[in-house]
Specification:
Blueprint: H1 8-17, H2 20-37, H3 39-42, E1 64-70, H4 80-86, E2 94-103, E3 106-111, E4 121-125, H5 138-142, E5 143-148, H6 159-195, H7 197-212, H8 215-226, H9 230-240, H10 242-256, H11 260-267, H12 272-280, H13 285-309, H14 320-327, H15 337-364
Antiparallel strand pairs: 1-2, 1-5, 2-3, 3-4
Helix pairs in contact: 1-15, 2-6, 2-15, 6-7, 6-9, 6-10, 6-13, 7-10, 8-9, 9-13, 10-13, 11-12, 13-14, 13-15, 14-15
Length: 369
């Protein structure tokens, strides 16, 4: 009796809030979305795609620290908004060093190398750094101590920065692919379930044809047809995920169209489009929402597989699948973190979507009450 007067949405929300892992997963997904959106603000390397690197410091372990010598960098004229969401267009002009010494108006420094005895020393004039740099303030203005929290990758780039900015690809492909699959799947599923007959037979024939083709092979075929690229992968993944949505929507529509309120809508002279979009589809969305959560996870895994095969997001765009591809052989070379870091990030995000989907399924299951 305590739930009397509450809407079905309110009851489902109340039930969802009682599921600890569902709420925890939802918060984790929201946090990951915020990290992806403001990735350049959170990333230690704020260059576009976190692509600054120095081969001298490649494959360093987590917590690696090194002194950086900063040279003057030209101003790009890029606005703060563009820097915040797309990164700095001009990378910093800096080099990792072992030590340095200022003698009069000259600077002598040794570039970083694992074998310090083989370090090369270079001499340049202090005037290279601008008129405001003198021997007394050189260290303050031109030397910084940089820490790589997760170490560096095979190209000497900050692994943490690549990991943070790479989350954009996984989150974005989830949203875009699921949106495409919902638009296409709901359309075909609704007309098949509502009109039946030859329309239903044609749609189910199309669904069965696409269903019979392995997902990865179909995505590869569409990707090759559209070309390699960031958005092409999103479209390709979305076009392979609509069949499951169509089958579920078709079954829901076939059951709901027999309801009395649909018959009453027909008797009042409402058009088919109004009946479908205003009366049937709103009452068939519960299982579609659950499928969408699972499709998010599937889209992330498919994109990672494509990136691993070299058909996903193309370099220098960071992708978790691409990072695993570049570093999986380092697992047997004693540097497993290079491949494990993006793998664990992907595992946690996929697990969060699956657990959120399970929680939504339980919350929307009215038979469980």
């Amino acid at each position: 009796m305590a739930n009397t007067g509450k809407s079905l949405t309110g009851l489902a929300l109340q039930k969802f809030k009682k599921n600890f892992w569902g709420v925890f997963s939802f918060i984790f997904i929201a946090l990951m979305a915020l990290i992806a959106l403001f990735s350049y603000a959170l990333s230690p390397d704020k260059t576009q795609n976190a692509n600054w690197g120095d081969l001298a410091i490649h494959s360093k372990p987590p917590g690696f620290k090194v002194a950086m010598l900063h040279f003057p960098t030209k101003e790009s004229g890029q606005g703060w908004f563009s820097k915040l969401f797309f990164g700095n267009e001009i990378p910093p002009n800096k080099v990792a060093i072992i030590n340095y010494k200022v003698l009069g108006n000259n600077l002598t420094y040794a570039e970083y190398t694992d074998e310090h005895s083989l370090a090369q020393y270079r001499n340049i004039a202090l005037s290279t750094f601008g008129t405001g740099v003198t021997a007394s303030n050189f260290t303050e203005k031109c030397i910084t101590q940089q820490t790589f929290r997760l170490g560096t990758d095979s190209q000497g780039r900050d692994l943490l920065s690549r990991l943070i900015i790479g989350s954009r690809v996984s989150i974005a492909i989830g949203f875009v692919a699921v949106f495409i699959s919902l638009v296409v799947g709901i359309f075909f599923g609704a007309i098949a379930g509502y009109f039946g007959g030859k329309v239903d037979a044609f749609v189910m024939w199309l669904v069965n044809i696409i269903w019979s083709i392995p997902t990865l092979l179909l995505v590869i075929a569409i990707t090759l047809a559209l070309g390699k690229g960031f958005w092409q992968v999103f479209v390709a993944v979305g076009l392979t995920m609509w069949v499951e949505v169509a089958r579920v929507v078709r079954g829901q529509v076939m059951g709901i169209k027999q309801m009395q309120y649909v018959t009453a809508a027909r008797a009042l002279g409402y058009g088919n489009a109004r009946i479908i979009f205003h009366h049937i589809l709103p009452n068939s969305m519960a299982p579609v929402i659950v499928i969408s959560a699972a499709n998010f996870a599937s889209a992330i895994l498919v994109e990672s597989g494509l990136s691993f095969l070299g058909l996903g997001a193309q370099p220098p765009v960071p992708s978790w699948g691409g990072m695993i591809k570049d570093h999986y052989n380092y697992i047997i070379l004693g540097k497993p973190w290079l491949a494990l870091a993006p793998g664990i990030a992907m595992l946690l995000l996929v697990l969060a979507f699956m657990m959120a989907g399970n929680a939504l399924r339980d919350a929307l299951d009215v038979k469980g009450e």
